[in-house]
Write a structure and sequence with these properties.
The protein has 191 residues and is an all-alpha fold. 85% of the residues lie in helices and 0% in strands. The protein has helices spanning 4-34, 39-67, 69-87, 96-123, 130-160, 166-190. Helix 1 (4-34) packs antiparallel against helix 4 (96-123) and helix 5 (130-160) runs antiparallel to helix 6 (166-190).
Length: 191
Amino acid sequence: VKSATFRFAMLAMLFMTMAQYGRIIYVPLQLESLRDFTPLRVGVMLMPAAVFGMIASWKSAWVTERYGARIAIATGGSISCIACLFLSQNTLNTNIGWLVFVLTLQSFGMGLAVSPAMATGMSELPPNLIAQGSTIRGLSGQVAGALAVGMLGAIAGAKMGANPSPQEAQDGYNFAFIIAAVCVAYSVFLA
């Protein structure tokens, strides 16, 4: 596929999806291992993020029609980047309400950015390449998930060291979210 717009859109989505997987994988690990939250409690905490991400994805069409895809992608990506930076400042005593708000903010930003990026990239393809473009889109999502788990996990683990104290583990997770914020900032740059 030779469309530059398609390539940039897929790269932007790859980096945004990496940050999203970081939130989905590492926040629950952090809360369950460092704060002894139950999986049910963590799941309930993630529900507002899922709802607001869905609403943002739905409303992203309106934002794109009114202001253009670049504005929607840049705005959503910026919101998500700021939320990742907030996640990188977590402590062992971060207020749960604040954490739910930040998770919801990141999900809202992702919802606002990802759909316009995908629509813009796919719309640039000629009809005979739509199937290949869709396959590349699906593959890039899988690659982003694998990269996020592997890369962010390796970064967090290296920062934690062997047998980390709770504070060292928190610092490792926080550093992983700094890297996630850099990934989202790069996707905003690509938009």
